[in-house]
Structures are given as C-alpha cells and as structure tokens.
C-alpha cells in the first residue's frame, strides 16, 4: 500500500509532541502529528487534569518563540522555600534578590496544551490512532497505523510518553527503577495567602510541595511512600495531615479538588535515537517530580532537535541520518542524565533515616542558603538560566 510521505512524523500529542510539531512547522518542515486521542484536548477550565508545571524561564522563552506562551499563563512565582525538619533552617530563593522578574511560572497542563494546539494550523493530524509497526527503508522510516494505513517520513519523532511504543518497536532499551513514592496531586485552599511562593518540605516519607496558583489556591504534589494510607483518608483527615506535614506554612487547609495518585519512576533510554527515529520528552527520560524538571527537559530536547534539523537542512544532510541524530544525542543525553542523577540523589539523601540526620540536612540547607557561591549556581540550574 502506498503511504503518505512527510519530512517529519511526530507520534504523541502531549505538550512535548505538540511543541515539536509547532516548532518544526514554523520553520518550514512538512509535519504530521499522530496521537491516540480522537480529538484535540478539551479547552482549559474544567480541571479534568489537575496537573500543573513549574515552567522555567528557559522553557518560557522557547514557548514564546513558538508564539505559544499562554495569554494568561498562571502564577509568576517570586519565591521558593525548601526545608526538612525545621522551617528556621530553610533554603530560600527570591527573584528580586537574584535580579530576576520571577523564578518561573506555575502553569496548568490544559492551559499550556491549549495554547500549543491553537497555533498548530498546518500540521496533518492523524488522530485516534496508535503506531503498530516501525520500519526503516531506503530514504526514511515507515509507520504502520492501528487503522491499517501507513505513513512515511525522513524522520520520526517519538513523543509518546514514558511507555513509548515507538521506543519498544525500535528496540531501544531503558535503564531505571520504580520509586517507593506515589505523587498525590490536588488543588487546595489555604488559610493564609501563598504570596507567590512555592514551598517544599522534605519529610521522611517524601517531599511535599505547595505550588502557588493565580486564583490564590495552591497545587500540592505530595510524593509519599504512604500514598495508599493518605489516599484512603476522607478530605478532612487529609487536610489535617497536610497541615501537620506543612508545619503550618500556609495555615489550615480548606476545600480541595479530588486527589489523584500517580506512580513515580526513574527511566532513561540507553539511546536517544535509532536510524530514522529520535526520542524526546518522557519517551527518553522520566525524572522524579521533586525538582519540577520533567517537562522542562522535554522542551529543551525539542529545542535541541529543532537546531539539528535546521543544521541538516542548511548542510543538505538527511534529517534521519546517523550524523544528524548523533548530534541530537550529544546535545541532550548527558544534560538529562545529570539532572536525573541529581534528582535521584536528592530523593535518596532526604529519604535516609538515622538519628541526628534531620539536623545535619537542615544545617546543610541553611548553609547553602548563606553561601552565595553555591546558592547562585543552584538557582540558575533550578530555573534553567
Ligand atoms: C506529579 C507530577 C508533577 C510534575 N511536575 C512537573 C513540573 O512542575 N515541571 C516539569 O517540568 N515537569 C513536571 N512533571 C513531569 C511532566 O509531567 C512530564 O515530563 C511531561 O508531561 C511529559 O510530557 P510528554 O509530552 O513527553 O509525555 P506525555 O504527557 O505522557 O504525552 C504523551 C502523548 O503521547 C500519546 N501517546 C502515547 N502512546 C501513544 C501511541 N502508542 N500512539 C500515539 N500516541 C500515543 C498520549 O496520548 C499523549 O498525548 C511532573 C510529573 C508528575 C508525575
């Protein structure tokens, strides 16, 4: 059967996949986007998906260049406070003190996705289908679709998330392990205003974050080894547990949206490419959410891959050639691995239990807070500048 042909086919209509489609389209590539959902995501507002992301300034700049930074992007957060046992021994970041307009934005998943889809005029959309086969043939790659059709491209981009079927079909192995934590997420009302500050406490059972929302509520991400027990609590019991765990940082907890628990794992693809195929976003790497970096890393992958595609066009190389894809791998693999390892080390450091260790960790955070030579680079790393 003859197959329609494109420069690039992207599989996966999440934020990373749609950002990749938009970035490549805007630069004149002929792009098709395949997603298993039959329709585009619903308009924001329904809170069907309570996920929010801490978007670093570097990611915001990239989305801006795509014309896809939302008109109403949520809360620009100015401060961050991190502690473990004693809030007096905290590490604090402050945008004004670092001469930054903000540390980042807390943006809802559906707001970001909607802004991207709204710009996606000219892409060919293949919706409601998954990919059954991947084959490399002369001059490109050929995908078999679940509806029986085929589609071919010079380059296929796998943006189909952590359980990527393209990664499996291409035989790319992964390294990784599940965490003992599950992340409980919900939007909560708090007694005191958040003052555009993100709070994170490292508890023995796992880190608890309060991310400020524009409507005055906070979005919580509680990565906990006690998720089953915490999820079984009625709202009032959960609110009490949250209040205790947060050491009253925002006062009592009021109304909350239904809680969801998400299993967490670390995953890293051994290779970011195979002939005719590149992996981006969670298809290539999955990181614990305690540092809010997963999506930021995925958007940085897209930016790097765009650079490689533009360079290939300028030098007359084929998009899916080993040389072009190796350049992409070099640009991203080490940087992502470094972040995965750092976050995994933090997970382990704060998970260790021994008498007196809480004091040592608290003093460590307070020390970092006072030493500009450590705090400055840490902040630049955290906000991606
Ligand atoms: C609790 C939590 C909090 C987080 N907080 C942050 C944060 O603050 N900041 C941050 O940067 N990151 C954060 N992350 C990480 C972030 O959620 C992910 O890194 C990001 O969503 C990955 O996007 P993606 O587009 O690569 O994958 P996904 O969002 O998983 O999208 C994959 C897409 O592929 C489609 N698909 C899947 N399989 C197929 C198939 N076979 N065929 C066709 N289509 C397919 C799906 O329908 C979906 O549209 C957090 C994660 C968690 C769990």
Automatic annotation (TrEMBL):
Q: Which UniProt keywords apply?
A: FAD, Flavoprotein, Membrane, Monooxygenase, Oxidoreductase, Transmembrane, Transmembrane helix
Query: Is the keyword Transmembrane in the record?
Result: yes
- Tell me the cofactors it needs: FAD
- Where is the chain membrane-spanning? 7-25
Transmembrane is among the record's keywords: yes
Q: What sequence ranges are listed for the domain FAD-binding? A: 7-334
Any coiled-coil ranges, and where?
Answer: none
NCBIfam families according to UniProt? Ubi-OHases
- Name the chain's protein: FAD-dependent oxidoreductase
- What organism does this protein naturally occur in? Banduia mediterranea
């Amino acid at each position: 059967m003859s197959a329609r042909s494109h420069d690039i086919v992207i599989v996966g209509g999440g934020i990373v996949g749609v950002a990749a489609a938009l970035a490549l389209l805007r630069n004149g590539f002929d792009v098709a986007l395949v997603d298993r959902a039959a329709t585009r995501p619903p308009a924001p507002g329904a809170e069907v998906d309570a996920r929010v992301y801490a978007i670093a300034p570097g990611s915001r700049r990239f989305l801006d260049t795509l014309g896809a930074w939302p008109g109403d992007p949520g809360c620009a957060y100015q401060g961050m406070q991190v502690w473990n046992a004693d809030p007096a021994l905290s590490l604090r970041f402050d945008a004004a003190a670092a001469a930054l307009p903000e540390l980042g934005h807390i943006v809802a998943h559906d707001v970001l996705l909607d802004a991207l889809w709204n710009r996606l005029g000219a892409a060919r959309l293949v919706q409601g289908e998954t990919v059954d086969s991947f084959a490399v043939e002369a001059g490109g790659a050929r995908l078999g679709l679940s509806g029986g059709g085929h589609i071919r491209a010079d380059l296929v981009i796998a943006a189909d998330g952590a359980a990527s079927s393209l990664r499996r079909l291409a035989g790319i192995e992964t390294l990784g392990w599940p965490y003992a934590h599950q992340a409980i997420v919900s939007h909560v009302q708090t007694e005191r205003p958040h003052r555009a500050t993100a709070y994170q406490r490292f508890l023995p059972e796992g880190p608890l974050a309060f991310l400020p929302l524009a409507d005055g509520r906070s979005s919580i991400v509680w990565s906990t080894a006690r998720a089953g027990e915490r999820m079984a609590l009625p709202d009032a019991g959960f609110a009490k547990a949250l209040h205790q765990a947060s050491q009253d940082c925002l006062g009592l907890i009021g109304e909350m949206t239904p809680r969801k628990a998400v299993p967490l794992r670390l995953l890293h693809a051994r290779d970011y490419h195979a002939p005719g195929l590149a992996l981006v976003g969670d298809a290539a790497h999955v990181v614990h959410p305690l540092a809010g970096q997963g999506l930021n890393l995925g958007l940085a992958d897209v930016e790097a891959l765009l650079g490689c595609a533009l360079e290939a066009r300028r030098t007359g190389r084929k998009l899916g050639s080993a040389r072009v894809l190796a350049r992409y791998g070099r640009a991203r693999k080490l940087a992502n691995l470094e972040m995965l390892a750092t976050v995994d080390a933090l997970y382990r450091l704060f998970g260790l239990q021994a008498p007196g260790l809480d004091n040592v960790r608290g003093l460590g955070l307070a020390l970092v807070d006072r030493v500009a030579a450590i705090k400055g680079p840490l902040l630049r790393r955290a906000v991606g500048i």
